[in-house]
Design goal:
alpha+beta; seven-stranded mixed beta sheet; 13 helices
Length: 569
């Protein structure tokens, strides 16, 4: 008699398993989901990032150059970067491709140097790390923690390392990791935008020329159309711009230009002022002489006061400052140039809680002034974005300034005015400075519209124009523009450029990017002192625990089999 075919036949069970695996694989390929068990959702992209990636109309290629002989922190940084780009790939529908390139691999020294020069000319910044060898010594190695985003023939640099000297190495790496999504998405969103917003640099009042603000103009060009021009007292000429920048004026504003700026603000505009109320320059004293710093009259004091701030005609000195080379040799001896602290060049602090200044490096300034906020201006939200350290003071103008001051020892009892505001952001509905004034005197032959109280707007005021100014020098191939915030004496790049870009993006209403920048990943560090004292204990635990768990699992499995099949027999 033929045996009946049983439902639990091995071949049938095998077929069932294969069908189940195929169906599960198909379902997983159709229905995409992620489960993020971290408390701050560090592995979850924001909705703004997902939307930006899904709306890509062509392929974006990201070339990452963080590879080679990396130490553990940079290896961790590379791994997290790879995971972030893999997430980008999934949500972009394969319209984002990435590759990790070792810029030091398989080439001789000359070829490596040439390749590095090319990458640096494109905007990437290398950094040095200390690596330990087998003999216990240390050696210095070069890494390139950056990437190029390639889109429709354009290559945009993204520098990934947040190298703040005030923070530790692990904190800098953590800050860099949590900024990955923001750094890439702000580039991709600006490149893939259907229309380009416009901003303008105002001319006609002795403002910085195109070379003095060349680096920030080039950086803003990735996100906006940047124009330059004069107001010429033309009402409404600024209404097409999302923001206007007034960088380093030296001549007084006439009433017509003030009216145009005022009414632009009443219409909901955004104005950024970078103003030196005291005329002082390091160039005038670098030869060892002295100069008199005088108060500069710009005829904008009434405007700023009405909006809620006053720029004091003072210069700030700060114990937290940058260095300049000074000849310290006595008269008649050979020159002896040494870097010394220059108190008139404060390194400004940025609050970590605001989206504009989050995780920023210190900001380099030169001959900064000080800002007071006017509390009588109700309904205006005032936020100090930059301030001095706790070791600072004011020096009233006019004042004589000379390099001989570096020989005078710093006296802590003189620096008793801490955390003086240098840059302030004002937000709200402003009141016109021309309220209760006749406009017929300003425009006698023109009929103009006037608003006394405006729409929601914002004003940024910095009491130091040098925050936005870069160095430049002529060369046979044209003007050589130094990156904004770069200190040629210390080879340190400060956060000036990123600060200004963030401020403009915040003021122009890029809410998705601002929320993205505000994300915070908690840094969970091991207690190094405890690890060092209990090193042997932790080595034994990590060495013996895995095999003991395997042995225990084997014993439990054997006991279960004996218990199950022993009864059956």
């Amino acid at each position: 008699m033929k045996k009946p075919f049983k439902i639990n036949h091995p071949f049938l069970r095998l077929a069932q398993s294969i069908i189940l695996v195929v169906v599960a694989a198909w379902l997983l390929s159709v229905y995409f989901f992620r489960i993020d068990l971290t408390s701050e959702k560090r592995y979850t992209l924001s909705q703004f990032s997902k939307k930006t990636l899904r709306e890509l109309d062509t392929v974006v290629v990201v070339k990452v150059y963080l590879d080679g002989d990396l130490n553990i922190p940079f290896r961790k940084m590379q791994q997290r970067l790879r995971e972030t780009l893999e997430e980008f790939q999934v949500y972009s529908g394969k319209k984002l491709e990435y590759e990790i390139i070792n810029p030091f691999k398989g080439k001789d020294a000359k070829a490596v140097d040439k390749n590095l020069d090319i990458l640096m000319s494109k905007g990437l910044k290398p950094t040095n790390i200390l690596a330990k060898d087998k003999e216990g010594g240390t050696s210095e190695k070069l890494v390139l923690p950056g990437a190029l985003v390639c889109y429709k023939g354009l290559e945009i640099p993204v520098n990934l390392l947040k190298n703040n000297p005030a923070a530790g190495a692990e904190e800098n790496i953590n800050n860099s990791i949590q900024a990955f999504e923001f750094e890439f998405i702000r580039i991709i969103s600006s490149l893939s935008a259907g229309s380009v917003e416009k901003i303008a640099f105002i001319e006609g009042h002795g403002e910085y020329n195109e070379f003095q603000v060349g680096d920030i103009t080039r950086e803003l060009g990735w996100y906006f159309q940047v124009d330059r021009g004069k107001i010429n007292g033309t009402p409404g000429i600024l209404n097409q711009y999302k923001a206007v920048v007034i960088a380093g004026p030296t001549l007084p504003f006439n009433e017509q230009d003030k009216y145009v700026l005022d009414q632009y603000l009443m219409e909901g505009g955004r104005v950024l002022w970078f103003v030196d109320m005291v005329n002082a320059s390091l160039d005038s004293i670098k030869e060892g002489g002295a100069t008199i710093a005088l108060i500069r009259m710009l005829n904008i004091e009434d405007m700023l006061f009405r909006y809620g701030v006053r720029i004091n005609p003072v210069l700030l000195q700060d114990g937290q400052c940058s260095m300049i080379p000074v000849n310290l040799a006595l008269a008649g001896n050979p020159p002896d140039f040494r870097p010394v602290p220059w108190l008139y060049s404060p390194l400004l602090n940025a609050p970590s809680g605001h989206p504009v200044t989050r995780n920023l490096n210190m900001i380099r300034s030169e001959f900064s002034g000080c800002i007071d906020t006017i509390e009588a201006r109700k309904g205006i939200r005032k936020t100090a974005l930059l301030s001095t350290s706790q070791v600072s003071r004011k020096v009233a103008a006019p004042v004589i300034i000379g390099l001989e001051e570096v020989r005078i020892p710093l006296k802590p009892e003189m620096f008793t005015e801490p955390f003086l505001p240098v840059a302030v952001l004002l937000e709200g509905r402003f009141e016109s400075v021309f309220r209760n004034r006749s406009t017929s005197d300003i425009f006698p032959d023109t009929l103009v519209t006037f608003k006394e109280t405006g729409n929601p707007a914002s004003v940024f005021v910095a009491a130091d124009a040098d925050l936005i100014r870069n160095e430049f020098r002529p060369t046979p191939n044209g003007m050589m523009i130094t990156p904004l915030g770069f200190d040629r004496y210390t080879q340190q790049t400060y956060g000036n450029k990123e600060f200004i870009v963030n401020a403009i993006q915040y003021m122009t209403g890029h809410e998705g990017l601002i929320r993205l920048r505000s994300r915070d990943f908690q840094l969970r560090l091991l207690d190094k002192a405890t690890l060092k004292s209990d090193r042997r204990k932790w080595i034994l635990i990590n060495t013996l625990t895995p095999p003991l768990l395997v042995i225990l699992a084997g014993l439990v499995y054997t006991w279960i089999r004996k218990r199950k099949y022993g009864r059956a027999s």
